[in-house]
From TrEMBL:
<dbReference type="InterPro" id="IPR006703">
    <property type="entry name" value="G_AIG1"/>
</dbReference>
<protein>
    <recommendedName>
        <fullName>AIG1-type G domain-containing protein</fullName>
    </recommendedName>
</protein>
<comment type="similarity">
    <text>Belongs to the TRAFAC class TrmE-Era-EngA-EngB-Septin-like GTPase superfamily. AIG1/Toc34/Toc159-like paraseptin GTPase family. IAN subfamily.</text>
</comment>
<dbReference type="InterPro" id="IPR027417">
    <property type="entry name" value="P-loop_NTPase"/>
</dbReference>
<feature type="domain" description="AIG1-type G">
    <location>
        <begin position="16"/>
        <end position="211"/>
    </location>
</feature>
<keyword id="KW-0342">GTP-binding</keyword>
<dbReference type="Pfam" id="PF04548">
    <property type="entry name" value="AIG1"/>
</dbReference>
<keyword id="KW-0547">Nucleotide-binding</keyword>
<dbReference type="GO" id="GO:0005525">
    <property type="term" value="F:GTP binding"/>
</dbReference>
<dbReference type="InterPro" id="IPR045058">
    <property type="entry name" value="GIMA/IAN/Toc"/>
</dbReference>
Length: 253
């Protein structure tokens, strides 16, 4: 299916020089490692360091510039209602990290871990699903089993998630990053997804855009208010200092 979509849109795909991707998922899911595997170079710091703010890297891969954003992960143990409001707002702002918007979200889920992501994805609106590919990390944990057997065995929740993503999924083994085949296949799926969307990048729902704009206005207003308060305090300080200086001068006279 991915190759069919690519072949149907070959002229359009050839004319576009870059693909913008955002890695999203839980903490310690392997997003940074996956980013390095995709870019075929150590561009994101991995290991004991947790991603605390969005990081953007780019690299030419197989004749096309890939722009990859590694977004901070969420706590997998928290439900949507338990996530702090500030973290929700930051998550909603992820698409703006690669202007004018990402072509594909790579939803990173470790094979050996429990997951709870579908509710969190709704923060970006219903339109996010047609731009999303589920990427299962730690592929070595599958052993002799196929990814299809794993998805079926995990039950309805995972099956529903994969269906929401249009049955677009891929397995990567970041410990075997030198295996170029797994990334070539992922790139085919990415390009197939991009082609299926007519090369249109993700655009947040109207309500989300309104929320983001309202937040931006509040931040700007807050900054202006703080500046005004600082200026007022400085004026008060200058007035007090001047009055004190005049008083001291008069006493000396």
């Amino acid at each position: 299916n991915y190759l069919v979509q690519i072949l149907l849109n070959v002229p359009l795909l050839i004319s576009v020089p870059e693909v913008r991707l955002i890695l999203i998922g839980g903490r310690w899911a392997g997003k940074s490692s996956s980013g390095n595997t995709i870019l075929r170079s150590e561009r994101f710091e991995c290991g004991r360091i947790r991603t605390v703010q969005s990081e953007l890297r780019h690299q030419d891969v197989e004749g096309r510039t890939l722009i990859v954003v590694d977004a901070p992960g969420w706590s997998s143990s928290l439900s949507l209602t338990e996530i702090p409001e500030l973290d929700k707002q930051r998550f909603k702002l992820n698409p703006s990290k690669c202007s004018p918007g990402p072509h594909v979200f790579l939803l990173v889920i470790p094979i050996d871990s429990a997951f709870s992501v579908e509710q969190k994805m709704t923060l970006l609106g219903e339109g996010v699903w047609k731009h999303t590919i589920t990427v299962f990390t730690r592929g070595d944990w599958l052993g002799a089993h196929t990814i299809e057997e794993y998805i079926e065995g995990e039950g309805e929740a995972l099956q529903s998630l994969v269906e929401q993503c249009g049955n677009r999924y891929h397995v990567v083994d970041n410990k075997n990053a030198d295996d170029g085949t797994q990334i070539t296949e992922l790139l085919e799926k990415i390009m197939g997804t991009v082609a299926a969307n007519g090369w249109s990048h993700f655009v947040p729902d109207d309500q989300i855009r309104v929320t983001i704009e309202e937040r931006r206005i509040r931040v700007e207003q807050g900054a202006k208010q703080r500046q005004s308060q600082v200026k007022a305090k400085m004026q008060t300080f200058k007035g007090t200092f001047l009055s004190h200086s005049i008083s001291v001068t008069n006493k000396l006279i």
